[in-house]
């Protein structure tokens, strides 16, 4: 599936402008700087050309990408961006919340967590929302190349433990490095199974 052509087709600032949910959808969420753009680039090898804005934390729209008419990949704005004005921050966090809790066709949310930092308050908040709305989500540990393997394993265990009682969390979590490419193929395989064919 990830060999298919990627095409940007919609950007939404309000839920009324979400495109109709015609394809199975996979969304990518996480704090700003978690490595989301790098991961999307590694997964699709085409992200650079598809992206509309390259300024981290300033992408305040939810961006929808069509992958060969088999999958819709959705780039959610990163949260926890320090420089944004409070009211701006709130409006797009509300949009993310609305998206993950109400979106039809949403098959999975990949919740990206930086291996070094682990899960923070905002991440837990999103987890609770997805639990309540029964949205399936999968933790993806990013930047594993920056930690010793023993620390990556420890982080993974810690997060899996904390999500053990959660019903919508898909286990095991995935571990990736966009820098070395580690884990990218496995993640592609897992996500490809969600596609229409
Ligand atoms: P985003 O804000 O979540 O889209 O994050 P970016 O993809 O822009 O990455 C933020 C920073 O982390 C950039 O400086 C990247 O080069 C770096 N980065 C992203 N992924 C990795 C990775 O797997 N390994 C390393 N070492 N650095 C990474």
Describe this structure as you would to a colleague:
The protein is α/β, with parallel strands linked by helices and 197 residues long. Helices cover 33% and strands 23% of the residues. The chain is built from six helices and seven strands. It has helices spanning 36-44, 47-50, 86-102, 121-132, 149-162, 184-192, and strands at residues 6-12, 25-30, 62-67, 71-75, 106-114, 137-142, 169-175. A seven-stranded mixed beta sheet has the order 1-3-4-2-5-6-7, sandwiched between helices. Strand 5 (106-114), helix 4 (121-132) and strand 6 (137-142) form a beta-alpha-beta unit. It is globular. It starts with 5 loop residues before the first strand and ends in a 5-residue tail after the last helix. The model has no long low-confidence stretch (mean pLDDT 90). Guanosine-5'-diphosphate (GDP) binds next to helix 1.
